[in-house]
Specification:
Elements: H1 2-27, H2 35-41, H3 45-50, H4 58-68
Length: 79
Amino acid sequence: MLNDHVNHRVIANIERIICEKNKERASQNFPRIRKKDLTLRSGDSLWRLRNCINYPNLKTLITWADILETDISEFFKPL
């Protein structure tokens, strides 16, 4: 159950970060970041996380943080 809660927190924070980054990118006329961009680079990890099948490993979290240009700690902030 604890992992399910953490998975939902990570998903919610990823969605929040994508939304915030896309607002910044729109003001600079840069292309939007899509959830698909994360899954293409990390296999089906985002789908597995959303469906509570497993938890992403550190390499995947680092990849997502790099794509989103954010610190990994942002994924674990309280909702």
